[in-house]
Amino acid sequence: MDKIPGQKRAVQYLYPPIDPFDQRTLDVGDGHTVYVEQCGNPQGMPVIVLHGGPGGGCSPAMRRYFDPDVYRVVLFDQRGCGRSRPHASVKNNTTWDLVADIERIRETLGIEKTCVFGGSWGATLALVYAISHPDRVSHLILRGVFLMTQAELDWFYGGGAGQFWPEPWARFAHLVPENERHDLISAYEKRLFSGDLRTETRFAQAWSAWENALASVYSNGHGGEAPGEYARAFARLENHYFVNKGFLSEDGWILKNIEKIHGIPGVIVQGRYDMICPPQRAWELAQAWPDADLRMVRNAGHALSEPGISAELVRAMDDISRREGLHTSGLR
């Protein structure tokens, strides 16, 4: 993504950089190991952070949304991406495998109940996890809501967002023959899993560039080219999950099961001009979930790094710790 003044300003809202006090790889079975780290206060209020994608991996900046004196922050790279292995693998890699991995991490670290913090796909996974294990979740903090519905996939890969961003859409869509453009997810699947590394990398970078170009409200339509290894994991995993409709049993599964998280307090932070995950879904989620506090951020898009998004997420975590009587440092 382009370097822009707004991205730099977002840093002022974050807590100072910190290093993990614990780093490990956890064998979760099925031939997979996942990278897990902990930072902040070892005796603090637990929060498990779920990155986006699928396939995005964690970054050091994600540690900085939490008061390190208050929170015990757990980050991990989901199957197939980041420092988890095997890299870019979609075998034994489903939503339900990831839910099981979260449970394994929670049990391994001796956590009884946890906040769950996730954005975009991370918000999807947080909701699926909470619906599956509501007794293990104390709070949900969601950003850039994605409910894994066909309507959302049609919006982003069927030309809806492309009407606002015709230049990057053309670069993305025109890479495949015209007779395949009616189903770009399937068209890219053929190339991302072709078995030829150069072809897979080329189409992975195009897939990633389309998403990156629209992530920020400050974008000029050029998201930059992601490194080949990162792009290949990101694109293959996203495509795999989207081809399989998130491995959910029916379209709209999350909202149809939302009553299972009634009673769990939540905050939804949503960019008003999010082109990747439009605000309609966040609003629908808030309407169906009485315990949710929807915070619509004006002049903001999808990216975690947007100033308004970062400020509101830090504020949300500080609000939770203040209500729990744990807050120490104040808003960055």
Q: What does this protein look like?
A:
This protein is an alpha/beta fold. The protein has two domains: 5-148 and 247-323, Rossmann fold (3-Layer(aba) Sandwich); 150-245, no CATH class. The chain is built from eleven helices and eight strands. Strands 1-2-4-3-5-6-7-8 form an eight-stranded mixed β-sheet, sandwiched between helices. α10 links the parallel β7 and β8 (292-297). α2 (95-108) packs across α3 (121-132) and α7 crosses α8. The two termini are 24 Å apart. Mean pLDDT is 95; it is low at 1-7.
In summary, what is this structure?
The protein is α/β, with parallel strands linked by helices. It contains eleven helices and eight strands.
Task: Write the topology of this structure.
Elements: H1 5-10, E1 22-29, E2 32-40, E3 45-50, E4 71-76, H2 95-108, E5 114-119, H3 121-132, E6 137-143, H4 150-157, H5 166-173, H6 184-192, H7 197-214, H8 228-243, H9 253-256, E7 266-271, H10 279-288, E8 292-297, H11 307-323
Parallel strand pairs: 3-4, 3-5, 5-6, 6-7, 7-8
Antiparallel strand pairs: 1-2, 2-4
- The helix tally amounts to 11
What's the helical proportion of residues? 25-40%
CATH T-level topology of the largest domain: Rossmann fold
Mean pLDDT: 95
**Do you know the CATH architecture of the largest domain?**
3-Layer(aba) Sandwich
Broad shape = globular
Rounded to the nearest angstrom, the distance between the terminal CA atoms is: 24 Å
Number of strands: 8
Summarize this structure as a short list of keywords or feature phrases.
332 residues; alpha/beta; Rossmann fold; 8-stranded mixed beta sheet; 11 helices; 16% strand; globular; disordered N terminus
